[in-house]
Design brief:
By secondary structure, this protein is of the alpha+beta class. It has three helices and 18 strands. It has two domains: 199 residues, Jelly Rolls; 53 residues, no CATH class.
């Protein structure tokens, strides 16, 4: 009889211990705060700032841990944000954004409000089905699962523009209207294409269908970044040779007269185009300051 009681006591103790372990696991899971395993300043040079609601302004430094809701700005220089181990956000001069980050590295939700300026995003691995990565601008929103793309916000004569340039993968865009609502229609921008969205205060729409990227209009730092991605065997939409020519020349200068090509010159980077020996007409002149160094392909008109 004593032997049976001993066995029964062991069983009861085991059951109690198992219940305690299960309870502890449930408690920890319920109280586990889902945060990024990594959200930090990866690289910073120049004049930058991080504004945090409960602290105020903080001068950013490498490996500084960021929090959801931080406003990050770069006046001049270089600043890169790293999220998890595989997402990078490269800021350009005069850029300001707000980060909203939830979840963990496996099921992450990232939202970036780009207030002004431009950023290039590199999401190196495809997001899980429960993850999202969105960028919001004053007139649009865009989402991806894994890609390299640039978003630029700017204003000309009171009209607000958003340009989305996709270098790898695909980006889905939607219009955002003045009342805060979004269009039901989605426009897909594929690798090698870009789209421009405008808001003139009355209408918000696409300037045109997605068109080929004009790489010569990209900042040098973005081209150099894409060149690094090529070296990393990323399938970007431009070649090393194209980037090298845009950055280093030589450049082609075309002279146009009444819509037709009158002549052309090849000029080394920071060299000078020369006034053609022959003139296309007795009156008029070439609309260009020939003392300006040439740093890109250009067309000069006779008027």
């Amino acid at each position: 009889m004593e032997k049976k009681k001993g066995k029964k006591g062991i069983v009861i103790a085991a059951v109690v211990m198992l219940a305690i372990v299960i309870g502890a696991i449930v408690f920890l899971n319920l109280n586990k705060k889902k945060v990024y395993r990594l959200l930090k300043i990866y690289e910073v040079e120049g004049k930058a700032n991080v504004s945090r609601e409960d602290i105020g302004n903080i001068e950013p430094y490498e490996n500084m841990v960021l929090e959801s809701g931080d406003k990050v700005s770069l006046e001049t220089g270089k600043l890169t944000i790293k999220a998890d181990e595989d997402k990078y956000i490269y800021l350009e001069d005069d850029t300001e954004l707000v980060l909203v980050a939830e979840g963990d590295s496996n099921n992450s939700k990232t939202s970036i409000d780009l207030l002004k300026g431009a950023i290039t995003n590199d999401i190196q691995n495809k997001l899980s089905s429960e993850s999202s990565y969105e960028i919001n601008t004053p007139n649009s929103t865009m989402s991806v699962r894994g890609t390299i793309y640039r978003v630029c916000v700017y204003e000309i004569n009171g009209v607000k523009y958003t340009k989305v340039s996709v270098f790898e993968g695909e980006v889905v865009t939607r219009l955002k209207y003045a009342d805060g609502t979004y269009s039901d229609e989605e426009v897909s921008v594929k690798k090698g294409k870009e789209v421009i969205i405008y808001d003139d205060g009355t209408n918000t729409d696409y300037v045109s269908e997605p068109s080929d990227i004009d790489y010569s209009e990209l900042p040098d730092d973005v081209l150099k970044l894409l060149d690094v991605k090529i070296e990393d065997n990323r399938d970007v939409s431009v070649s090393h040779e194209e980037i090298d020519r845009i950055l280093n020349g030589p450049f082609t200068v075309i002279f146009n007269y009444q819509g037709s090509e009158f002549g052309r010159q090849t000029v080394e980077k920071n060299g000078f185009a020369s006034v053609p020996v022959l003139s296309p007409a007795q009156s008029g002149s070439w609309q260009y300051d020939f003392s300006t160094p040439v740093d890109h392909d250009m067309t000069i008109e006779w008027r």
